[in-house]
Design a protein that fits this description.
With about 300 residues, the protein is mostly beta strands. It is built from three helices and eleven strands. Helix content is about 10%, strand content about 45%.
Length: about 300
């Protein structure tokens, strides 16, 4: 009885209603199914059944943002400086390490030592015509020189000079009282330096002044003097530093002696023919010469 009732109820189901329900359920189920692979382009064979679908290309990679540079490191403080004393002997190289240059303007001071010799004669002996030679009064000896001047435009040096020498007495005094002989020169000069004044140059030195020769012993003191018109010096000037130079030099000079002063006795008891302040007559004057070979050192002070 129950089965017959259920069959009768199913028979009363309306067919159109069933179709509507099926049309709604099938699309929903289709949406849940995986998508079908794309169709191949025209002209290409279809992929075989059961083959894996073609790979889908990956999307382009997004470039990474540029790296931000790290901030610069803070500079480290320098290590403390430790003074190391120079090795032994480095002080001797100080002059070599110092730049050398001659100042344009400076106070020029210095002096030197040399060997001096005389030749020629002092005067003619009256009545005989013989010459009283320089060797009768003195012999070669040592000379000391002092200079004071100014360096102008690096190469030009006007200066004042004093030369003083002590030497043995000459032949006239052999065997007599102990006699000393001295000579001096006081004058003004001008020096010009050719070549490299910052290294090695070649000075030419011209001076003029008063020359005096004097001998002295227990019997008296006698001197003769005169104007020395030309005193010429040549040599080499070597600059050691911006302040100091050394100069080996050769000086040649000559002149006549016209003035006299005092008197003295020779070893034989005679005396010079021209004594006192009478001077030497012009007809009796002769020419003498001097040669000085020495070396001097000068400093350029207060200069730039």
């Amino acid at each position: 009885m129950k089965l017959a009732a259920r069959a009768r109820s199913l028979g009363r189901v309306n067919l159109p209603s069933v179709l509507v329900l099926l049309s709604v359920a099938l699309p929903a189920r289709a949406q849940d199914a995986p998508p079908l692979p794309p169709l191949p382009p025209p002209g290409e064979p279809a992929p075989p059944a059961g083959a894996a679908p073609p790979a889908v290309p990956a999307p382009p990679a997004i470039p990474a943002p540029p790296a931000v540079p790290a901030p610069p490191a803070e500079p480290r403080a320098p290590a403390p400086y430790a003074y190391a004393p120079p090795p032994n002997g480095s002080g001797a190289l100080a002059l070599e390490a110092e730049p050398r240059h001659a100042p344009r303007y400076a106070l020029w001071l210095g002096g030197g030592l040399g060997f001096i010799a005389y030749s020629g004669g002092f005067y003619d002996l009256p009545g005989s015509g013989d010459i009283e030679t320089t060797g009768d009064y003195l012999k070669p000896g040592l000379a000391i020189q002092a200079d004071a001047g100014a360096r102008l435009a690096r190469r030009y040096i006007p200066y004042l000079t004093l030369e003083y020498s002590i030497m043995p007495a000459g032949r006239r005094f052999d065997g007599g009282p102990r006699t000393t002989a001295t000579t001096s020169f006081v004058g003004i000069g001008f020096r010009y330096q050719m070549g490299d004044v910052d290294g090695v140059s070649f000075p030419i030195d011209v001076s003029v002044g008063w020359r005096k020769i004097q001998v002295s012993n227990s019997t008296g003191t006698y001197g003769v003097g005169g104007l020395e018109i030309l005193r010429l010096g040549v040599g080499v000037d070597v600059r050691l530093s911006s302040r100091w130079t050394i100069s080996p030099m050769l000086n040649l000079s000559g002149g006549t002696l016209t003035d006299t002063g005092g008197t003295i006795q020779f070893a034989d008891g005679s005396s010079p023919p021209y004594t006192g302040n009478g001077g030497i007559p012009s007809e009796a004057t002769t020419t003498y010469f001097t040669v000085v070979v020495g070396c001097s050192a000068h400093a350029d002070l207060l200069g730039k």
